């Protein structure tokens, strides 16, 4: 049995880079029911630091879609309003002794882009530390090339192992696998990887439930937690929703945006029912509300393979 901390705090962390679709909602449904079935609290955190990929209005649309589907949360935060905290955390990494744990890097555009978004599987690149000890400040780096990024300095023995509550034991030799991974593309540290660590700790999140394409992003996050003396929450990475081609849900798999399904006349009970059936809690074709699913929630019936969405 998994040891659950007494006061469970979970979170839903949408990125307003596009409309909420069935894939996001299945993960949020699992996160939500996990918290509610343990009488826990739920935080809604809008992760809007991904300029220019963020789409205007997508944040409000995501909130409306979630409310329409029956999600309720106890606290709500917006990352773009919390930049002072990320700046402070970056300052701590920079003043670490005997050497700073973050440094500016001017390497390829692709690497730099990966610094700002959540690094979903397949997007993580090995970085051999070319810019280590190269610049004494961000200003110096940005004189050489516009848009540098901050990287975290990984030690050779930084091997991370943790027991994921769904995926099981996960281990990574971060120095060999990722090298000095990107922290943020913003001068003051406002980027996904640093912000997610700062916020999960500041908001008292006890378990992170998210899609398993972020499993490999977890060891770097644990390294940052340790560097900043922050607690490590429990993790629970659940399978993605994919199309029939095995690829993560995208436009070519049909319009699975919640706002589009709603406009087509689908009822929220049908949408939640379909997703709940994919987790083994009800029969296929049955309707359900989130409220009705709280007593039926069971992590152990969720298949370990990706859920294939058939149009
Ligand atoms: N906002 C991130 C995304 O939508 C999720 C990050 C997380 O759950 O840690 O990709």
Q: What can you see in these coordinates?
A:
The chain has 311 residues and is α/β, with parallel strands linked by helices. The protein has two domains: 9-81 and 240-308, Rossmann fold (3-Layer(aba) Sandwich); 83-192, Glutamyl-tRNA Synthetase, domain 3, CATH 3.90.800.10. It has helices at residues 22-37, 58-69, 83-94, 109-114, 138-144, 174-177, 192-202, 218-227, 258-263, 268-278, 290-293, and strands at 9-12, 41-46, 75-78, 102-105, 149-152, 159-164, 168-173, 182-184, 207-211, 234-238, 241-242, 307-308. The strands form five sheets. A three-stranded parallel sheet has the order 1-2-3, covered by helices on one side. It has a three-stranded antiparallel sheet with strand order 4-5-8. The protein has a two-stranded antiparallel sheet with strand order 6-7. α1 (22-37) crosses α10 and α7 crosses α8. The longest helix is centred in the N-terminal third of the chain and has 16 residues, at 22-37. It binds glutamic acid.
Q: What is the share of helical residues?
A: 25-40%
Task: Find the count of extended strands (DSSP E, 2+ residues).
Answer: 12
- Our estimate of the beta-strand percent is 15-25%
Distinct small molecules: glutamic acid
């Amino acid at each position: 049995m998994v040891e659950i901390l007494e006061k469970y705090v979970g979170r839903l962390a949408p990125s307003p880079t596009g409309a909420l679709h069935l894939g996001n909602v299945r993960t949020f449904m699992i996160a939500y029911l996990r918290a509610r079935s343990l009488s826990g609290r739920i935080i809604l955190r809008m992760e809007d630091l991904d300029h220019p990929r963020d789409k205007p209005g997508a944040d409000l649309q995501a909130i409306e879609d979630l409310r329409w589907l029956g999600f309720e949360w106890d606290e709500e935060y917006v990352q773009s309003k919390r930049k002072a905290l990320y700046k402070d955390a970056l300052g701590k990494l920079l003043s670490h002794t005997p050497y700073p744990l973050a440094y500016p890097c001017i390497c390829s555009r692709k690497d730099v882009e990966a610094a700002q978004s959540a690094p979903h599987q397949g997007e993580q690149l090995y970085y051999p530390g070319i810019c280590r000890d190269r610049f004494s400040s961000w200003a110096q780096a940005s004189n050489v090339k516009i848009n540098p990024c901050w990287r975290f300095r990984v030690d050779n023995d930084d091997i991370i192992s943790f027991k994921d509550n769904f995926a099981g034991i996960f281990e990574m030799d971060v120095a060999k696998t990722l090298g000095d991974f990107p922290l943020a593309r913003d001068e003051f540290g406002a980027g996904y990887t640093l912000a997610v660590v700062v916020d999960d700790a500041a908001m008292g999140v006890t378990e992170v439930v998210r899609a398993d394409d972020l499993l490999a992003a977890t060891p770097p996050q644990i390294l940052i937690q340790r560097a900043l003396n922050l607690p490590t929450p429990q993790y629970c990475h659940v399978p993605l929703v994919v199309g029939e081609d095995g690829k993560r849900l995208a436009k070519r798999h049909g319009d699975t945006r919640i706002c589009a399904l709603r406009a087509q006349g689908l009822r929220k009970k049908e949408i939640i029912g379909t997703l709940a059936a994919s987790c083994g809690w009800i029969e296929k074709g049955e309707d359900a509300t989130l409220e009705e699913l709280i007593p039926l929630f069971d992590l152990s019936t969720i298949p370990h393979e990706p859920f294939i969405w058939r149009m």
